[in-house]
């Protein structure tokens, strides 16, 4: 199993070459991180289908019956008014909104199948839909964790460090939420500091929370300022996204509806994602949970199209099952994988971009963490997802963001991107002449065919330790967790803050200070 | 993220129900292992295609040029004689065999597309091909490892313990090789003791090594005795398999050809698997390595069909890449995944069953081990593999078999089997009435729909720890590795030896003793 390859020269030359692999403004970091430039992977495989066309129609039909016969509560007067005027069935004094399938389908059909979200750095513009794939970092974790300092409530330093890692790694294409919630900043002004950090510490597409109209408006205005756009330009240019979680079952809460309204009015992107946990807020059957997911997602999407026809939206799927022993959410389960694949089938049925996730329920960076996370990705990628949220750093069902987990997940994501690179099947790649040259019992390392290609032939992992057992033992038997603990600090050291026009920077500061002086946003959400 | 489900009753009743889930002769083990009965999973998804039909033909054509123009060395006089008589081009005194594509394709077409390998326990008969999938345990590791005793050269006790685990877990469908090499048994008689153990400690389909004609003949005769078949019945009944590894590049060694001849003559199964490591024994390009893999696999398969037309064979793919820093084999890489998927396309082109693997290069049971193993499985399952070898317990690129790894992999395999279970999309599963009953802001746990289904609704993992962070911390923050360390011992305790007719048992003993008295088999292989 060991091979007499002459590798001394390889070990010397390969990293040097990798270190030079810089293009344009892309930073490839130190030799520890032989990154490729920022580029969204493309789906080269046909998405899988876990249900037949007839079965898909049965799910569609069931969710239409839910919308027609049962209805969804919209906890927002303006939203109900908009819906009533459009023909929805709403009894006076009630929140329940019933929509017939013709209305829903007509509205949903107004949403674009694919679109681009502009980034502050145009090289980081995000394509959503089509065959493009995007990975986002973990979002919304209340705690941060690393091995050196243990688990603690999220704070601004951790928040900023995760933003830096998200900027540093080219395989992270967007920042769809605060990686960790910085609870040391008062809730009334947290969104101001956080969005300002998004603008300053990264130049990738980001997300603002829908936690009350004021926060949406502040986030939108900060984004407009940060991007240097006029109000007229901004409303015609998707620049920022929000995630709208329905309050399953069958409810859209006030802040979420405010978010849908403000984002749609501003021409910005809403990712509508029901949190349909089979056995808890959704039926215990995967098909039933998907019926509910589909009804809720389409209700939110249809509503956004009422506010502004053609506004970009994303169909979000987050259906999983609970641990029947504790009621806690489980992730990366077989049920989760199937739901992720059918979620993709549903999104494609409505010609909508599809959001899935890379998630797990593990408490630490062990076999379980990788198994569940990779199986989540298996469902997302095979399901044809366009945005994979939480794809780096997610632990404990989202209760913590892990620094080491962030790094190990980067290796997974980079591997997926390579997996999605088309195979070279050219005459030269088929290598008949190299096979002829080497002949029986020979070795390929010495051939010109190999020498011409070996430096870039294979993906070079950042976490996987491929030393033999003896060398690895002598080095203290480090695990992937140990290596990631070292690497996340190296990545933070290598991080470089992207440039920002000083005039814009001042304008951001002025806006944040003014809004803080005004008291920020209400905290009774 | 936590939910107020009433779970006290669940925790009490669910395991009891699971403990009763016994059917027929299946042992489901203790409550720690809520296994389903032995049943091969079925491919419900269309296999992926990593290359187009034209590109697949280009690989086919390139491998045909290799067989026609370059040829393969067959290091066996009888084999060359057989090939020459069939029309192959062999120069006098040389080992090089050139076959034209018409000859190769005509011979390969004689092999069956699917077949059944009989097991000693007919309930464990193995379907090979079609939509059936089978998982085999790790094979051929020189070392065994567990946390309590560290890494040591394989020995008979470890060998037997891995056989017991393979028998105990219903998700292991066959034993395709010695899980670990018991080097404490002299090589001349090792095969006798090992095959006798295969017959006694398991009743699943197993494998005999092709390490010299005498070992094949002893293994075949022991199998015939163990199965209680007459020689006439045996030759008409596939009962046992061997793996034929070509000595890449372009060589079939003497013991492998002896194995192909003896297995084919006896009507038994050969799994022809070239070991084509891109950058070492194969071209550095994945397409080139696949060209070589295809040429070598088809050469072995065509030869087997010459010996006995229609004899069952399997197309084996094991193409991976080396670590360019050390020359060591890497597994679960993006290149590996793509090669596994194209391997499936090639096998289907020739209407042959396909063997792939669940492998990694990790030295311990960490994130890397799960990541690489799961990505290997991703390639194998998406590639439509029929037999996934090394699927439980493989570590260090095959240099050790791990007891804890065996258990963590069982969780992966059971999850894959559940993932391959068709989704129930019946009217009842769509759950519109349950959604109506619960309504907005309700909870599904209390509904009859949930109560009727929750016990069997979701896969219950054996390794994944779904406790919340606090409970998990109080329990000492165990990793999956820790849990697996406990579980493998519990599984060994729960193991029960399958029954064997005492008369057959005596006959096995008598055969082994006679052959030992005769000196066993030569050790100069």
From TrEMBL, chains A, B:
Top-level EC class as recorded in UniProt: transferase
Gene Ontology molecular function terms on file: methyltransferase activity
Stretches the record annotates as Disordered: 1-38
Keywords associated with the record: Methyltransferase, Transferase
EC number: 2.1.1.-
Family: Belongs to the trimethylamine methyltransferase family.
Record-linked Gene3D superfamilies: Trimethylamine methyltransferase-like
Protein known as: Methyltransferase
Domain of life where this protein originates: Bacteria
Biological processes per GO annotation: methanogenesis; methylation
Taxonomy of the source species: Bacteria, Pseudomonadati, Pseudomonadota, Alphaproteobacteria, Hyphomicrobiales
InterPro entries: MttB-like_sf, MTTB_MeTrfase
């Amino acid at each position: 199993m060991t091979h007499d390859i002459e590798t001394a020269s390889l070990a010397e030359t390969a990293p040097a070459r990798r270190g030079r692999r810089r293009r344009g403004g892309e930073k490839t970091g130190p030799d520890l991180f032989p990154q490729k430039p920022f580029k969204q992977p493309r789906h080269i495989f046909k998405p899988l289908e876990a249900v037949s066309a007839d079965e898909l129609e049965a799910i569609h039909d069931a969710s239409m019956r839910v919308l027609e016969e049962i209805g969804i509560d919209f906890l927002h007067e303006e939203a109900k008014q908009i819906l009533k005027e459009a023909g929805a069935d709403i009894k006076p004094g009630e929140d329940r909104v019933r929509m017939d399938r013709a209305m829903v389908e007509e509205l949903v059909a107004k949403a674009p199948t694919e679109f681009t979200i502009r980034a502050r750095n145009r090289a980081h513009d995000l394509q959503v839909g089509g065959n493009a794939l995007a990975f986002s970092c973990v979002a919304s974790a209340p705690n941060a964790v690393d091995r050196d300092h243990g688990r603690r409530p999220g704070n601004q330093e951790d928040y900023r460090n995760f933003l830096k890692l998200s900027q540093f790694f080219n395989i992270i294409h967007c920042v769809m939420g605060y990686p960790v919630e910085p609870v040391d900043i008062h809730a009334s002004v947290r969104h101001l500091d956080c969005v300002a950090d998004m603008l300053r510490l990264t130049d990738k597409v980001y997300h603002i929370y829908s936690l009350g109209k004021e926060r949406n408006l502040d986030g939108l205005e900060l984004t407009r300022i940060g991007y240097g756009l006029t109000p007229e330009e901004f409303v015609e240019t998707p620049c920022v996204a929000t995630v709208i979680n329905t309050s399953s079952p069958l409810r859209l809460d006030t802040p979420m509806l405010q978010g849908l309204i403000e984002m749609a009015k501003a021409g910005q992107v809403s990712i509508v994602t029901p949190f349909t946990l089979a056995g808890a807020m959704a039926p215990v059957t995967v098909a039933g949970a998907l019926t509910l997911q589909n009804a809720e997602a389409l209700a939110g999407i249809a509503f956004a199209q009422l506010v502004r026809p053609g506004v970009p939206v994303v169909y979000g799927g987050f259906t999983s099952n609970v641990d029947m022993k504790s009621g806690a959410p489980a992730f990366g389960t077989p049920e989760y994988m199937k739901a992720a694949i059918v979620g993709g089938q549903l999104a494609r049925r409505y010609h909508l971009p599809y959001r899935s996730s890379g998630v797990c329920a593990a408490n630490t960076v062990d076999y379980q963490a990788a198994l569940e996370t990779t199986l989540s990705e298996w469902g997302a990628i095979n399901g044809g997802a366009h945005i994979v949220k939480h794809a780096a750093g997610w632990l404990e069902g989202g209760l913590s963001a892990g620094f080491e987990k962030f790094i190990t997940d980067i290796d997974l994501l980079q591997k997926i991107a390579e997996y999605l690179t088309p195979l070279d099947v050219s005459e030269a790649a088929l290598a008949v002449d190299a096979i002829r040259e080497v002949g029986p019992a020979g070795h390929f390392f010495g051939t010109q065919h190999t020498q011409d290609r070996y430096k870039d032939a294979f993906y070079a992992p950042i976490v996987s330790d491929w030393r033999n057992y003896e060398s690895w033992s002598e080095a203290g038997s480090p695990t992937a967790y140990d290596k990631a603990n070292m690497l996340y600090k190296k990545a933070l050291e290598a991080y470089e803050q992207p440039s920002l026009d000083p005039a814009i920077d001042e304008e951001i500061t002025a806006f944040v200070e003014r809004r803080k002086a005004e008291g920020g946003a209400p905290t009774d959400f």
